[in-house]
Protein 1
Amino acid sequence: MNVLLKKFRDALFSVIPITIIVLILNFTIVPIDNTSLIKFLIGAVLIIFGLLIFLIGVDIAIIPMGDMLGSTILETKSIWKIVLICFLFGFSISVVEPVLHIVAGQIDYVTAGAIAKSLVIVSVSIGVGALMTLGVLRPLFNIPLPIFFTIAYSVIFVLALIAPPEFISISFDAPGATTGVLTVPFISSLAIGLFSKRAGKASEEDSFGLVGITTSGAIMALLVMSIFARNVDLSHTINQYTNTSIPSNSIAGSFLHLVPSVMLETLSALLPIVIIFLIFQVTSFKLSKNSFLNIIKGFVHTFIGAVLFLTGANGGFMEVGVIIGGTLTSLENKIVVILFGFLLGAVAILAEPSVYVISKQIEDVTSGYIKGSLIISAFSIGVGLAVALSVIRTIVPGLKLWHYLLPGYGLAVVLSYFVPNLFVGIAFDSGGVATGLMAATFILSFAQGAAGVIEGSNALIDGFGTISMIALMPVLTLLIFGLIFKVKSSKGGTQKNEQ
Amino acid sequence: MNNNTKSYELIYVILNFGMGSKVYRFARNLGIKRGMIILGKGTVKSPFLEFLGITDVRKEIVLMVCESSKINDIVPQIVDNFNIDKPNKGILFTIPIKDFYDLQNNGKKYVSEKVNKNGGAKNTMYDAIFVVVDKGKAEFVVEAANEAGAKGGTIIHARGAGEYEIEKIFSMEIEPEKDIVLIILKKELTDAVVNSIKEKLDIEKEGGGIIFVQEVDQAYGIL
């Protein structure tokens, strides 16, 4: 029983901070109407239980399966099999990702059908599959991570120069579009399974970075797509958020009407993973009946958990996000807005499931040498800064998204040469990890609300791009944490020798 | 090289995840100089958790070297402070060591005068069984041990590096992954449990694995 209680406490403490901040705001400067507040609280409860069940499921199904799969692929020892299998994995995970379908739909609309939705989905999935394959091959041929990322982001930079500017923010949002709540744990545990056998120190280092590499594939694919769309009439405005209207005003109704679509989304994201598992179970895993049943149970938990927290976040958190964003921004004192932007970003990410999965994996791989709490605080500061910087961008008219992205990614690539490789992998993974559920619901609606009120800023275009920032900032904070860690641990090492 | 002729013991503390650093810090204040923390998995037994599919829980194993003369002072303090003798708080046991080399200190050698010289009224009814097998087989080891009367075990994940076992895939060196299962049990059960594991896992076959048994000096928290 102790085990469950502890997991429940973890889930509780990840949702309490954001609840407290929202309640404080409610009783001070941003009064929220009762219906929305009750919805928010119900959402919070759903997220707590969803998180609890989901994380148990990930623990007993997704992580062991990714792990076994990695080992099995490596044992084929045939480079063509590895290439083929990895490409198919990347492709099939991406092609069913619900968020990608939404983004592809928007591109279809913006280009007035010149770039069809299905074309976007297929080409992004090819990009994801291709880069995932390269990411798996990288350690096999001993190419260091910093060099790999330098090449990848140089390609992205060149593509971004050629691509029409309207597409840049959509493209840099791509990490959010391709890494859902299921794909992040799956890809990262696949990497751990692949490389944990590696001799020497590199086994830790190579266990991370695959998520980051995979998401850069999505950015590339979208930029390439947009270059072909150069001559297309872009007069349609980007209206990503028109579909977020809430049709039902009754409290229970606003949650219940979400359930069928959320179930369908989760099922379609989970299905390829389950199918891959069943194929490998028959051909190579050949698990005992008990272990097999356990993994199936894990898939069921994962499904139930994901449905609960997706429903909670979509039904309860989005509305409150818009209200807070809107009311806060109308305040005279802009410093307060920026400050609360930081605070809300920092607490919202604590409820992100992928953050917990990855920090636990980091603890496991490094035998507790790097504490999960360190990683979580880096995420928290990073996302806080991302939201604060996005708020600043809506206030200062001349500031463009690329003013952040270009120096940001430049700095990240440069820093990667000075930071221990383990942190480089973790940092670049964090872009995909942070742009999950909380970013897409609460933080995005906050930014939208904020942009909607400020004069001269376009709610649709300026709200957009927040995801790009959330994908960028944790990369930087984790690299900086890595740098501090390196300096501190080298000091500690010399002290020990002196004793 | 100086030979220090005092006797030494290795203290093992197995606790829930997150407690390891606290115990180590506490022990350091009591004068323990060398120690390390390993991550492991403990088996859980509860019909409800089994129904949910939860079969193991993260544990931390703290290993500390301690002089035998101090051990009767330090161990009870750790046990009291972390309630190790209460159910579900953890296990503490000590194993005498023959000698050790302090590699941080130019390989200075420490030799125990006599192993097990402090017998007498102490609790020496327990053995520690270590089983090293290929990754994924740990659950069968625990199953086999439980059938013979053991009450669960702790699994440590490791990489093996046997004489012929390092191979290369392209330009990447591979070390096969291993599971180490640590089982503490009453002496009279040892033979039965070892035999059960041996039979179930074909340990005698080449590459089947390794079993070794160590005598436990003191033990706390074993139900």
Note: The first strand of chain B starts at residue 3 and ends at 5.
Protein 2
Amino acid sequence: MTAALLRFELAAARKGRTAPLFAAGFALACVTVALAGLSANGALSVQGFARTSISLLQLVLWVVPLLALLTGAAAGAECYELEYVAALPFTRSQIVLTRWAAWLGALGAALCIGLGGAGVVIAVFAGTADAGRYLGLLCFALLLLSACLAVGLAIGVRLRDRGRALAFAVVAWCVLAVGVDLAAIGLLAILPAGTASWPLSFILLLDPIDLARVLGLGLFSADEIAGPTGAALRAVMGGWGASLLLAGLVAWTALPLLFAAGTFRRRDL
Amino acid sequence: MIELRQVWKRYGERVVLQPLDLRVRSGETVALVGPNGAGKSTALRILAGTVQASGGSVTREGTIAYLPQRLGVPPATVVGDLAALVAAARNVDGALVRDALSAAGLADRLDTPLGELSGGQRQRVMLALATAGEVGVLLLDEPGISLDVEGAEEVRAAIAAARERGAAVLFASHHLHDVALLADRIVLLVEGRVVAQGSLAELAASAGVPWHASAADPPIERIYRVLVRRSRQLGPARAA
């Protein structure tokens, strides 16, 4: 029966405008970034997956969280329009979780189309070296999408009103995309040299976008190709390992979903 | 069968439903009537499980079908997708649900979003879906809203058919002639409390309105007005 609800939600997500528009726009942006990277030296066959992926990672880190937070917030607020569905023999948790899964499927497919299109361009013009790592980038992007969708859904379910939820989602995006980094910079300025690793690592776990950023940079040995920023991040994360970062991203999906399901279960429609 | 025992509901400081006892047996049709804000929809929502009671106990036996007053799904929802969901949720053949839509003259609307249908068509879709398959309990909140004469007749037929099949039917309506025609028992709610309940003959006697069951056109509007006016004159304390 959960499969039926998932099919219902998937159909709704697929037939809306958000996923197709995202697929088209993101694919265009990814291919443009890939081509622009390749043509930096005036030729179309110089840059490979590794360097182009760093540029694509930046695109993912800015665009995916914003879209996922907004979509999740709208989907969460829309849960309260499902009085008819809630009276069918489905639990409230099923309703929330299938909404998240359906949007993850729809936007995840769009993400794959976008990064896939760029991957094809890179493979054709620059060869397939580091293609495996590029797939890793896609996986991190999907994890980031999953986490931000869950956060957005929690915001929507909590605030109930669509307009307020969307506004709060934008604020959340600003905080996660920029605010946490500013806090980290401030912390670096305050703390004595050599003592910032643990506080910075803690701050890192508070931000799914930064988690995905560090994972992505680590994937492509960013200390070698992404300049001092990548090297600094790698140095800070030296003893932690990717598994903890991955666990952090998974937690950023699980905890907001638990919160959303619990909140929706207690509320009247 | 459905039963509410001492069920009440509060939104913030405002009590919208005073402790209510209500039982609808299989094969019985009960109508909830009363002015706007009387608590009819709240009682139905509690029974449907979309609103939680502040206190009391709720018993539901059998498959519940609920037609809310508002649409109950996003307007972009496509008719065929909702039909498939209802079929899966009730564990019935999808063809049965599509047949119910065909019978309502909506077979060619399976690919149409509900928001693109007229109010009457939307209501007929939702009614067809609500009554498709084996239904143990049928809860209808203002089922005749937005419907033309033919649509209203479909509602009456659907309620009668559900009762014939042994369902417990509880519906809220402002269409008092439908209530007189369909209900075995009428529950009158005013400002969240039951002020009268019983068969039409019992309500007529309670209101002091002369009427015999054999007479055509029961004076239900007069009975209703007398009972509502009396409850308001008595006030909450006396009536409680």
Note: The radius of gyration of chain A is 20 Å.
